[in-house]
Write a structure and sequence with these properties.
With about 220 residues, the protein is of the alpha/beta class. The chain folds into two domains: about 5-135, no CATH class; about 140-215, Arc Repressor Mutant, subunit A, CATH 1.10.10. It is about 50% helix and about 15% strand. The protein is built from nine helices and seven strands, in the order αααβββββαααααββα. The chain has helices at about 5-20, 25-35, 35-50, 110-115, 120-135, 145-155, 165-170, 175-185, 210-215; strands spanning about 55-65, 70-75, 85, 100, 105-110, 190, 205. Helix 3 packs across helix 5, helix 6 runs antiparallel to helix 9 (about 210-215) and helix 7 (about 165-170) packs across helix 8 (about 175-185).
Length: about 220
């Protein structure tokens, strides 16, 4: 089945653990009890194959739209908007859930489609997200060969990389290495390690490492 591999399982487990740590009250208890089979099918068959990242995705979110309040299976909380995702469950009462967040729209998928027509669901998901946020990824084809190699180096490194690392790996001078690193920051693929902006000494991926590697091919 699509998405049923080691990378998916590891990413999903890490994501759920982070969600549990961040959640509070009844929402935290609900996440600990576990997502529904329909939610797991959506993650495995639709979300993960389409995006290969759980960044900005939150499970079991109390939300408010034009029709009132409900608890969503998921919410994609990527600034500046929040998109709700409902997997065939219909509107559920908030109960003791946390304060509802405003959603720009709710994407609804039939549970049967998530299992039997996942390709169409993935296409609908991508279209909705691109329509809302624009292109979801910087185009890798606009990177020079050196920039691609540097981005791969950063994604595979266990620590932030430095201009000296790049110069040594690519056999280029320090000036060329620093220039390429600055271009990758401009293209939003790398950022200053530690969040600094003055006299940057080291760089790290600005997005999830696995997503960056997938973009680079």
């Amino acid at each position: 089945m699509i998405g049923n591999d080691a990378a998916y399982r590891a990413a999903q487990q890490s994501w759920l653990e982070a969600c549990i740590r961040a959640a509070k009250g009844t929402r935290r208890s609900a996440i600990v009890r576990g997502l529904s089979p329909d939610s797991h099918a959506f993650l495995r068959n639709v979300w993960w194959p389409a995006l290969r990242s759980f960044e900005h995705l939150e499970p079991l979110v109390a939300a408010r739209d034009a029709d009132g309040e409900l608890v969503l299976d998921f919410a994609y909380m990527r600034p500046p908007l929040t998109i709700g995702i409902d997997i065939g469950s219909g509107r559920r009462p908030l109960g003791g859930a946390c304060r509802a967040v405003d959603v720009a729209a709710v994407l609804r998928f039939a549970a049967e489609d998530v299992r039997r027509d996942a390709a169409r669901c993935r296409e609908a998901l991508r279209f909705a997200l691109e329509r809302t946020y624009g292109a979801t990824e910087p185009p890798a084809l606009r990177l020079s060969p050196n920039e691609k190699e540097i981005a791969r180096l950063a994604a595979r490194s266990v620590r932030p990389i430095t201009p000296a690392d790049v110069a040594r790996e690519l056999l280029v001078c320090g000036k060329t290495a620093r220039s390429a690193l600055k271009q990758l920051v401009y293209k939003r693929l790398l950022r200053a390690a530690g969040g600094g902006k003055q006299r940057i000494r080291a760089y790290e991926p600005a997005i999830e490492k696995q997503r960056l590697l997938r973009m680079l091919g």
